[in-house]
Specification:
Helix content is 49%, strand content 15%. It is of the alpha/beta class. It has an 8-stranded parallel β-barrel, surrounded by 10 helices.
Length: 268
């Protein structure tokens, strides 16, 4: 836990709120830049504690069809890395809510690690999770992230060994993203007992906040996670579905997103 003395916006959220944080995910630039900003602000006005922005990618291996479609919509609308940084800068004019990028290593590498983190920091990004980067290969990225005051965030799954959990916990800042299901993102019917076992297992190795994601969609799911002791719940596909259903009607999209977040927050 070296270097965790400086508390950023993410740490402040977890130390401030008594109940689990609601972490909302949407794809940057879906369905276009302006609507994406409106959707993000609706999530925040609805009570989202931390906003996760997916950097659209042509081959998002961790994602199911809902988020893949959103990536396609964003890319079709012409979303580039520059656009994603613009979105963050515009959000920063309106809100102080922490922003976390979900990216794939290819984009970071393509831009140059130092440049990527420098620009992210300047735009106002608080944390970055690189979905396909194993902890064993994260030295350079973690060092760069911390140099720019950005929390490196990692995924932990049910197949992660205790030994790797220790390694990841030693590296990670902000919170740990616990994958609640085996497989890709997408809405599921229930929160698996495996997810709750994982939560207990990781708790033995770290004091970092633990957020459960993948497959969490309903107030009942949120309640189960809260009762199990999760410090946060991460919702992606359910939010992206609301956006996808209201492509021609941004006003309704905003209302539906606010209502949805409100219901989830109440359940937490």
């Amino acid at each position: 836990d070296a270097g965790k003395g400086m508390m950023g916006r993410i740490g402040a959220v977890f130390s401030r709120i008594k109940k689990p944080a609601f972490i909302g995910f949407t794809v940057a630039g879906d369905p276009d830049k302006e609507t994406c900003i409106r959707a993000a602000m609706a999530l925040i006005e609805g009570g989202t504690d931390i906003l996760e922005l997916g950097v659209p990618f042509s081959d998002p291996v961790a994602d199911g069809p809902t988020i893949q479609k959103a990536d396609e919509r964003a890319l079709t609308a012409g979303t580039k890395m520059d656009t994603v940084f613009e979105i963050v800068r515009e959000l920063r004019e309106k809100t102080d809510v922490p922003v976390v990028f979900l990216a794939y290593y290819n984009m970071v590498y393509h831009r140059g690690v130092d440049r990527f983190y420098k620009e992210a920091h300047e735009a106002g990004v608080d944390g970055i999770l690189i979905a396909d980067m194993p902890v064993e290969e994260s030295d350079d990225v973690c060092e760069t992230a911390l140099r720019y005051g950005i929390d490196p965030i990692f995924l932990i799954t049910r197949t992660t060994s205790d030994e790797r959990i220790k390694k990841i916990a030693a590296r990670a800042h902000g919170y740990l993203y616990l994958v609640a299901v085996l497989g890709v993102t997408g809405v599921r019917d229930t929160v698996s007992s495996g997810a709750l076992e994982l939560l207990q297992r990781v708790k033995n190795h770290t004091t970092l906040p633990l957020a459960l994601g993948f497959g969490i969609a309903t107030p009942d799911h949120a309640k189960t996670c809260a009762e199990a002791g999760a410090d946060g719940v991460i919702v992606g596909s359910a939010i992206v579905e609301i956006i996808g259903k209201n492509l021609g009607n941004p006003d309704k999209m905003e209302r539906d997103l606010k209502t949805y977040v409100g219901q989830m927050k109440k359940a937490l």
